[in-house]
Design brief:
The complex is a heterodimer of chains A (827) and B (687). By secondary structure, chain A is of the alpha+beta class. Chain A folds into three domains: 291 residues, Beta-galactosidase, Chain A, domain 5 (Distorted Sandwich), CATH 2.70.98; 82 residues, no CATH class; 378 residues, TIM Barrel, CATH 3.20.20.80. Helices cover 17% and strands 33% of the residues of chain A. In chain A, helix 1 packs antiparallel against helix 2, helix 5 packs parallel to helix 7 and helix 8 packs parallel to helix 9. Chain A starts with 6 loop residues before the first strand and ends with a strand. Chain B is α+β, with helices and mostly antiparallel strands. Chain B has three domains: 308 residues, TolB, C-terminal domain (Neuraminidase); 110 residues, Alpha Horseshoe (Serine Threonine Protein Phosphatase 5, Tetratricopeptide repeat), CATH 1.25.40; 191 residues, no CATH class. Chain B is 45% helix and 19% strand. Chain B has 18 helices and 25 strands. Chain B has a four-stranded antiparallel β-sheet with strand order 3-25-24-23. Chain B has a four-stranded antiparallel β-sheet with strand order 4-5-6-7, with no helix packed on it. In chain B, helix 5 runs parallel beside helix 7 and helix 14 crosses helix 18. Chain B starts with a helix and ends with a helix. The chains are: A alpha+beta (827), B alpha+beta (687). Chains A and B meet through loops of A and helix 1, strand 2, strand 3, strand 25 and helix 5 of B.
Amino acid sequence: MLSVKKLILLMVAFVATMTPIVLHAAYVSTGRDTDVNPDTLDEIPVVDFDEGGYALLMQNSTYEFYWQEQRDVLAVFDKRNGYTWKTGLDIDPNVTKATQATACKGALRDYKDGDISFGEFQDECDASINSLTGTTTGPLQANSLIYFNYYSKGESDSIFSQSTVYSSYLKSSLYKVTSKIAKVNNDSSHWRFTVSAINLGVNKDLDLEIIADIYLSDEGFKLEILNENLTGTALPYLSNIGIANYMGAVGGVNAVYTAIDAIGEEDADYTVVDVQEEMIGGYAFVPDGTGALIRFRDNSVSLRSFKATIYGDDASQSYQNYLTTSGAYVPFKTASIPVYGIAHGNNQAAFVAYATSGSEYMSIISVPEENIYKYNSTHVNFNYNFSYNKLYTLDGDNPVPSIWEDINHFDIVMNYNFLAGDGSTDGYPANYVGMALKYKDYLIEQEELKLKNSVMDNIGIRLDFLMADSENSIVGYNTMVATTAKDVVNILKDVSSKGIENISSGMLGWQKDGLTLGNPSKTEFASKIGSKAAYRNAIEEMKELGIDLSFYQDYYLINEEQISLYRNATKHPAGWYGRVLTYNEMIYEFYYARPLKSVEWLHKQSKTFLKMGADSLTVSGMTSNLITDYTAEGTTRTQAIELYREAFASYDDTAILNLTKPNSYLYKYTDRYLQMDVYTTQFLIETDTVPFLQILLQNTMEMYAIYANFSFYTTHDVLRMIDFNLYPSFILTQQPSYVLTDTNSSIYYSTEYALYEELIEEIYFSVNGALKEVIGATWINREVLASGLIRNTYSNGVEILINYGDSTEMVGTTQVPASSYVVLGGE
Amino acid sequence: MRLFKKFMVLSLSALVLGLAISSSVLRTDASSSTTYTYALDDDYEYVRTQDAYLPGQTITFLGLDAPKDITFNSQNELLIADSGNKRVVVYNTQTKTSWDITHPEMVNPQGLFAVMNTSAYITEGDIYVADPTAGKVFHFDATGTLLQTFGKPDSIMYETLLFQPEKIAVDKAGIMYVVSKGSSDGIVQLSNTGGFLGFFSANKVTLSLREQFQQFIYSDEQLADLGLNFTPPVFTSVFIDNNGIVYSSSSSQFRNENMKKHNTQGTNMLSEVFLSNTKLIDIFTDKSGIIYTADQGGWIDVYTNDGEFIYTFGGSYDFAIAGIFKTLASITVDDNGHIWTADSSNSYIQSFVPTDYANMIYEAINDYNETRYDESIAIWSEVLKLNQLSILAHNGIAKNYLQTEEYELAAYHFEIAGNRMLYSEAFWELRNIWLQEYLLLIIGLSLFGLVAVIAIKATDKRYHYLTTARNTISKVKNVRIINDILYMKNVATKPNDSFYYLRRKAKGSYLGATLILVLAFLSYLLFVAGKGFIFQFVDLKDMDLGSIILGFVVVVGLFIVCSYMITSIQDGEGTVGEIYKGVAYSFYPFILASISATLFSYVATTNELFLLNTIMVIGVAWTLLLIFISVSEIQNYSFGETIKSILLTIVFILVILLVLSFVQMTIKQLFVFFEEILKEGWRNVIG
């Protein structure tokens, strides 16, 4: 019977070296796992659109769109599940704690005077008022569709502080805002929302107008703020614009007013108790590293918010002209995709929001409960200007805080798509998987991603080589060689002889002076590492074995010992070269290559590499970082993206592109995604790790995990590769790693091939056992059946069950042994 | 430590400036954890290693307010001293349920101790709570019922002292060890009825020479400004393990006082260990004796039962990231080996799960302690695969080999680990074995050699077959330059006559003197950089060859020049050339000693260190004596005049050095000034 699934592959018993030594009774999930589904919403909240000042903007087969003019709230009623999403909390700012207290006092007085009955007292007084109404800006912040921050000068010209303006109305002595919505061209799917603010700034002489176009459709809605639609004298001071601050926010505290009856009228009173709104099941998804969920939790301690700049912070738009990294902590993961989402309930209602323009200036902010207003809220904002330390003196002392002379120019286009149900009807379940699949389909539609449907029989493996690096010597530097071109050939032949297929390989530190000091603008070879001829032969020889050998190069971080900074390094607005101080052995001060230069060097080196017979290019640094260059021939982040896209597009037909942690604008050109994150930054508020990035990109490119050498080699890690659909990767040397002890490469503390020979084989065949069954198929669902027990479903009918726990689990009639996996289905 | 300093400076500057880089700028961020784990290399510098622990559970929902201490009870429930909420929370980490212990008098619980085993004096499950504000120790049973309260001990000895219990531990006899806030007298020892038994151990102040000098000349305010505090450090925590061994932690500049494993008399058994971090706030040991410490800087350090440093991880930044603390307050470890910590500023509990790597290390240590050497070696070999730079593993494996009497392997691994002391032990054994094996042969060969020499000499007298060889040697010796150099032997044995001939130009030459100086320098370099592993503390590549050359040339050169200048105004008769020759020809004993000591260092062990030092002392002293005689002879000085002349020469040398360093500093600053201007112009105008 075709419908009967057969067990085609069984548990892979890992060898003793990969078996955990300590066994635990039950699997306790941590922030690095995905926990079981959130609680189901028993009741779907009903909104009465006939009351409450709503006006219907438009309806289609899926949605009804309403506008609450007084509060600037766009409400989207999803006909599929009856769920209503609002861009703000929709709080009546006129009913405040103060007005309710007055009402209660008045009613109490009347009751005590015998003018009204207790029932009437109750009718007047009993109420639940959102605590946000206790502050002036609370309801405005919670309701407003748009807010913006601008810099205002303090008493001294040099002191800049930020003030927030909410689009919802406010008449005060400080400033005045008016907002209105109007249909455009009599098209009910296109509305224009105009926010005008006057009396801004210390002297109240600044104004700003923001025009946002809202497009309503079958997918949800799209909000556009074009660069040309920002006008006013306050524009140079504009810091950022935030959108739908409280959309999908959960939590909050209500002040509950209760009338108290008493035997004697004198004892009658009323009470006010703050009651935390019960948390509903659900979470916010944020693209931190591989993807993180922030579950709605009633925290008892105040924790810092999550804030991530999409494509990483811009080192040129930071306060100081230098950044410092510490050797203590692992660098934060980058948010490489401009997308976030919120799910309410268990596969019931969700939305996914993504930028299709302006993502290079976008940040995602998630505020945990217990902070300020006791809500879990997540939203996006877009950065226009920034403050920085301007330097005037030679030694950099006495810097003057300043803001830059011009804002970032870009168009904001944010899409909000809504998901309903478990995905059985449209394939998009209302959870993070649905969010990923929805965004994936959008990218496929835009031809930014293309389904690969690979026909490989086995998975790939990435084996990088660390060739050489420099160390200090009595005079100058000494190049320490850990692997030669000949060694690479011998090792790869050996690996290949074990039956491992689809090997791709990059060589780090292949050129003269090695990894840290090798000049990225040149292709100089050193015979003690490998002459040009030796490399050419190596590439040729490997080709015959079906192995792709390429040269690795970082075109982003440079140092003064490696290349002149003049005309090569970016400048910070402070007037100095931007730099980063790292915790490294030899060279610890790095600068950033100008995007124009990165591209120039890429072309220059690639020309040689391709001539030498290389089929692929391995690029790092410029793939995962974006920087503004403030030199005379400078580039913006937007221009840098265009430069990079153009550069990589030129190799689309001529070379395979192996890109290290590419940002989303490079997906179109990426053939192999290297060093893919498997974790999040692990902020305290992040409750789960999910393979969002992997679901998004699976079957569109080969995805390789972080190097297994460094704390990613255990059974648990192998299971994670299978769970996250990642192919293994290693970094290897012929010589023991201690050869490089005094070089910057000392961070690669365990690389000798002789030590990894067996592990490479074990891990490859373990991962291959599962993932070769789903090559060319699309990952369509991921479920957490129990803590530590995962089921991944692919479009070819294959299901992979992964058990991270230390005890055998049953899934239906299938037994999944401890710390193992089972592949079900397929032909 | 150079690297560590840089690392600390960078960390500190990041903290001060509030800067954090959120994108990955390093070429690898491969790690499952949020912080890197660091171990030591053979130069005692920190090196990255595989993650030892990964962040586990983060508990933010217990409503804690400034938790100050945590510990597990015998039911594996976590006790939390929730100081801000005046309660002790009993939290079940499996069921995630909790209940509270409160008492009206308990207002600021800061220290906890849970009784793990019942004895005649204490009952399993009982909880002791230290409360500095109440000035009491509360004794609860497992259900949270108050059994006893202990206030300030009623003793004349304690009369003038404050009793503010911050931390507490209790031994099997019910004796309480109490850390009283701010007390530098020691750990307060109370009987099970609360009677004062005395102070158990006290921290000492150990001052360096410089600090002693500073203490002598500075006022208290000035000392405080310098950050120097010479009052004995106060204890920050006390812990008693299942075997009744008392451990304590302190936070001070006196490294040896900060982590202590006390014997019954209170003496520290870990006085000479490497301490990774010094501002300790808590200490814990697990069943195997592994020591865990928590540092105010957010570092968690792990040591073996002997106090050998294993690794450190953590850090203190206000990032709200699992595994990075705002204020690390307490540490404990559960039965599964999971570390649990409390952050008193962000008021949450964070657990850490050991990785396979950490578990392997603990198992290898345990196997060694329980004499399962082969098993231990096998595990250490696996550890080495995961980190080839791990000196802990090399040391661990070598210690096992030492026990299994595989000395060559032991010596090999000790050498990689830079463990000179134990290498010396292994080498001693190897030398012993070699001697035992070859002693008879050596004696036999020596005797044979002796007989052969006597025989040759005797027969040569009759047959003269060695005449040709003798003549050749004689010819070589008579080559002028060789003869000139060899004359230094005469200088060493008959200095008075020899310096006379040297002065009269009858013997020796400038070229000879120069070559002797070169030889002296080379033999000095050999001694400095070429000794056997046991005595060679600095690698050649870490040496500044320029400074060594410059130092030698400057010292010798300055002495010659200054000596000439001084003697010329003191009626000295010698010329500068004669002084040059005199000094150079005095170096023979030094050359001989340097070469002999270097050669000897290859066969000596630490036991023979004295002998090695003696060789060098004799060589140097002899050379100095010869220089003294050379001054006396060449200048024709009396003993007193010579002493006066040499002392003046030394003073003159010091003055010149001072002036030179001043000139050098000024030139350097001038150079930096122009360099900065050029750079600035280049960067801002052109670049």
